[in-house]
Design a protein that fits this description.
Blueprint (H helix, E strand, L loop, with lengths): L4 E3 L6 E7 L2 E6 L21 E5 L10 H9 L4 E2 L8 H12 L6 E6 L1 H9 L6 E7 L10 H7 L20 E6 L5 E6 L2 H9 L5 H9 L4 E2 H5 L13 E6 L7 H10 L3 E5 L5 H4 L1 H14 L2
Parallel strand pairs: 1-12, 4-5, 4-6, 6-7, 7-11, 11-12
Antiparallel strand pairs: 2-3, 8-9, 9-10
Helix pairs in contact: 1-10, 2-3, 5-6
Protein name: Pimeloyl-ACP methyl ester carboxylesterase
InterPro entries: AB_hydrolase_1 (IPR000073), AB_hydrolase_fold (IPR029058), Sec-Metab_Biosynth_Hydrolase (IPR052897)
GO molecular function, one term: catalytic activity
Length: about 290
């Protein structure tokens, strides 16, 4: 697939598209977490694909709420099934089974660890027409989220970017016994670090504290588990938001993964949780993926 790079300078929202000297750029509004997302096109008569939104670690389905609303308003069927965050293989198997219940075309969107999940779950499903990665992992066979994070410097989640997972992680480990009695550890992001790690200090302290309080922890095993089988991005076209202000996944890692996957790339001054702070940019990227599959 021929890669098309789209450089995007908006901070918090997109209000239109301009063509200048053959280069597509996104016109931006003044920074505001409340800026409305870009208007979506309703001029096609083809059936709209179902948009499936997959959350990442230390998050939940509700993190997509500001993306769901404009997509639904534009007539898209939208679902955001929960991610258990206990194992990559288990999370991927659950999503793969869920996708089989959906009739018609699907645009599959993953954020953060959710990118690893969609990379595995979409393989072999002919209804998945596009993959959209939002500040997300797009691993190849044999790669883990933790290893990809540590491969490039810049993540605030580790004091040593070259340290092995999970010893490099700063979140709080909480041990518990699994049903078979074997031990497991889940990781909670520290409340004091949440605003920096996921939001790059772009939401208020109070709003960040609420998200930290309602976070879903991720099992350390999930972040260290390698991707099995052929990654879906080798067969399915993909779109990728590189978040230049990401404090969790180094932007260099995102560019590497997006380039390797031959994704259509948008770069923006967004934090890791771009779907929370910059829903317009994310909605616009999803709409581009929809248009690119027609």
């Amino acid at each position: 697939m021929r890669k098309r790079r789209v450089v995007q300078s908006a901070v918090l929202a997109v209000t239109g598209i301009a063509l200048v000297a053959g280069v597509t750029t996104l016109a931006s509004a003044a920074p505001s977490a409340q800026t409305a997302p870009v208007a979506l096109s309703n001029q096609t008569t083809a059936p709209k694909p179902t948009i499936v939104l997959v959350n990442g670690a230390w998050s939940d389905s509700a993190s997509w709420s500001r993306v769901v609303k404009p997509l639904q308003a534009a007539g898209y069927p939208v679902v955001a099934p929960p991610t258990a965050l206990r194992s990559l293989s288990g999370d991927s198997a659950y999503l793969a089974a869920y996708l089989k219940t959906i009739q018609g075309p699907i645009v599959l969107v993953g954020q953060s660890y959710g990118g690893s999940v969609i990379t595995s779950a979409a393989t072999g499903n002919p209804n998945v027409k596009a993959l959209v990665y939002v500040s997300a992992f797009a691993p190849d066979t044999g790669e883990s989220a933790g290893a990809l994070t540590a491969r490039f410097p810049g993540s605030h989640i580790s004091n040593d970017p070259n340290a092995p997972v999970p010893t490099a992680l700063s979140p709080v480990p909480v041990p518990f016994p699994k049903p078979d009695g074997t031990p497991e550890v889940v990781l909670y992001a520290k409340a004091a670090q949440y605003r920096d790690l996921f939001l790059s200090d772009r939401l208020s302290v109070a709003a960040a504290a609420e998200l930290a309080a309602t976070q879903n922890p991720v099992a350390s095993a999930a972040l260290g588990e390698n991707t099995a089988g052929e990654p879906a991005w080798k067969k399915i076209p993909s779109w990728y938001l590189v978040s230049d202000a990401d404090h969790l996944i180094p932007p260099a890692a995102e560019r590497f993964m997006a380039t390797r996957a031959h994704s259509h790339i948008v770069e923006a001054d967004t934090p890791h949780a771009a779907q929370v702070t910059n829903p317009g940019i994310v909605v616009n990227l999803i709409e581009r993926a929809v248009a690119g599959t027609r």
